[in-house]
Amino acid sequence: MAEVLHSAPRFVTPEGLCAELVAALGDKVVAARQEFGEIVITVPRDSVVEALRTLRDGFEYQQLMEIAGADYPSRAERFEVVYMLLSVTKNSRIMVKTCASEATPVPSVTGLWPVAGWLEREVFDMYGVIFAGNTDLRRILTDYGFEGHPFRKDFPLTGYVELRYSEEDKRVVYEPVELAQDLRSFDFMSPWEGANYVLPGDEKAAVPPPAPAPVATAPVTGGPAPVATPKTTETPAQTGAGEKADKAAAKKIDAGDGATKPKRAPAKKSKAESAPEPTESRPARKPRSKKAGNEGGSGPAPEGS
Prior knowledge:
Radius of gyration: 59 Å
CATH class of the domain at 17-132: Alpha Beta
CATH topology of the domain at 17-132: Beta Polymerase, domain 2
Distance between the termini: 144 Å
Shape: elongated
Number of strands: 9
Number of helices: 6
Structural class: alpha/beta
Helix content: 10-25%
CATH architecture of the domain at 17-132: 2-Layer Sandwich
Largest sheet: 5 strands, mixed
């Protein structure tokens, strides 16, 4: 047999073990197969306790590791209850399955393994499978007033009631949802694509017209740059003067007229020449009396002393 990689711990499946188990269970076996190194045996619902007792006492499958459930709504008996057994001495694992419907109870195996009480409560809570003989068959994951079973494929994904813990009643109570029912409709549209409807609050916003697409155009040029040429006066008419003006200008230059010479700035006067006239001298003050001026010897000396 080819080696199979599996996430579960490595265990041993001896050759011929499946046939040996089927022979020991006899008419309690509905189907049996061995796939991927695992043995799966299906037994009738009424014979599940006797089949598990035989595997525990006769083949040393001492531990009940898990009880799982599965839902197949298209079947007449839609639920499957799966018992996973472990043999510590042989390092071997097997799975035992049985089927049930919503109204047909499955015998409890709490007499074989007391831990089955908790495991059966979980399957009852999630799937609604009833276990006959379980003296404490209550919900274990959901609250006691929960309606329905979460792992059923017909369980609604959205409801119209919400639950809370009531301090007055000291229990969980159900109340109608206060949110608007319009919020329960989802379009599952990608947010990057945008919604094809008006979002709340945007109905008053004016939609701006789309901007025109830019058009690529070639740059406009005025030809080659002009070359700079020197300006000349070829005729007297271009200068705005005639022969008479030229002769008059020549006479002024020959006569030394200062009209053509630049004006000089006036020479600066010396400090003595630019000083204003002195003002009248101030008359001398009257001398202070000795009593007023030298009292205590601290005042200034009178003028002229």
